[in-house]
Design goal:
Strand 15 and strand 16 form a beta hairpin. It contains six helices and 18 strands. It is α+β, with helices and mostly antiparallel strands and 292 residues long. The longest helix is centred in the middle third of the chain and has 12 residues. The strands form four sheets. Strands 7, 8, 9, 10, 11, 12, 13, 14, 17 and 18 form a ten-stranded mixed sheet that branches. Strands 1-6-3-4 form a four-stranded antiparallel sheet. The chain has a two-stranded antiparallel ribbon with strand order 2-5. It has three domains: 79 residues, RNA-binding S4 domain (Structural Genomics Hypothetical 15.5 Kd Protein In mrcA-pckA Intergenic Region, Chain A); 82 residues, Pseudouridine synthase, CATH 3.30.2350; 94 residues, Pseudouridine synthase (2-Layer Sandwich), CATH 3.30.2350. Helices cover 18% and strands 31% of the residues.
């Protein structure tokens, strides 16, 4: 890599028609090579707001094709950050390919959705760009079905058609998918009945986290828990466990980040089990990962 350009944000109004978007960006961002600009487009860091026509609304969309011709009055937006675009990250692991959708083991640090600064580290775009080819699978479109926090690892479904995405999303919305999570907490989690159902409201909304099982690991003074949630509030499991004094190991938001004098980079929270009736084939599907 030549001279580094850590971060650039540009909002350009096109002054002449029939110019390619790559030429426009290169002309206005000479400090960034054309090769890097092409990658920025591929990785979702370039957006286009078309010129308004006939009082139609102007929808801003990601634009990936370097030879896309611009029209006078269009607006081009570049969100270029080398730390985001070119950083190394752990790949997701294919669990199962079901044709209309696939199941992946998402690593900690990978997003469920992209941001304006790029989307190649989001699970759907990553599968589309890298995951399918790395597993010798046919190229297909990828659509988000449900979300896992960036810090949470484990099972996530990627749909390969809009119809499949809709049908699978409806299963989540109607709570027809059995989801279980594996976590590790410091100390011995109590077996008292009152600690098996955590129901404190989150952000003013009802929330329920159920502890299915626990195993105390004496040599590490940690407890491995299996949980499920009846509601899907933001950071629900993390907040509930922290509130009862058993924050998840590695939780920088709600617990102690320093464990035994050493910082942990990974949150010990994992989506470890998914079971549902496939809305396409009506077969019973079940996917499981090892627990933490």
């Amino acid at each position: 890599m030549n001279e580094s350009t850590p971060s650039v944000e540009k909002h350009l109004t096109v002054c002449k028609s029939e110019q390619t978007i790559l030429d426009c960006l290169s002309e206005n961002c000479p400090q960034i090579s054309r090769q890097k600009l092409k990658l920025a487009m591929k990785y979702g860091a370039v957006w286009l707001t078309p010129k308004a026509q006939n009082n139609q609304s102007r929808n801003t969309i990601r634009i990936r094709r370097a030879k896309k011709l611009l029209q006078k009055g269009d607006q081009v937006h570049l969100y270029y950050n080398e730390a985001i675009l070119f950083s190394e990250f752990k790949p997701a692991r294919l669990v199962s390919d079901e044709g209309e959708y696939s199941i992946w083991d998402k690593p900690c640090g990978m997003f469920s959705q992209g941001t304006k600064w790029g989307d190649h580290t989001a699970i759907t775009r990553w599968v589309e760009l890298f995951g399918l080819s790395q597993n010798d699978l046919l190229e297909r479109s990828c659509f988000l079905v449900h979300r896992l926090d960036r810090a949470t690892s484990g099972l996530i479904i990627v749909a390969h058609s809009k119809k499949a995405a809709q049908l699978l999303s409806e299963l989540f919305e109607n709570r027809k998918i059995d989801k279980q999570y594996s976590v590790r907490v410091k100390g011995q989690y109590p077996s008292a009945t009152t600690m098996q159902r955590l129901t404190r409201d989150i952000d003013g909304k009802s929330a329920a986290t159920i502890v299915i099982s626990s195993e105390y690991l004496v040599d590490k003074n940690q407890t491995s828990l299996i949980l499920k949630i009846d509601t899907g509030r933001k950071h629900q499991i993390r907040k509930h466990l922290s509130e009862v004094g058993y924050a998840i190991i590695g939780d920088r938001l709600y617990g102690e980040y320093i464990i035994n004098g050493e910082g942990r980079s990974d949150l010990m929270l994992k989506s470890c089990y998914l079971a549902f009736e496939c809305p396409i084939t009506q077969n019973q599907m079940c996917y499981q990962l090892s627990v933490l």
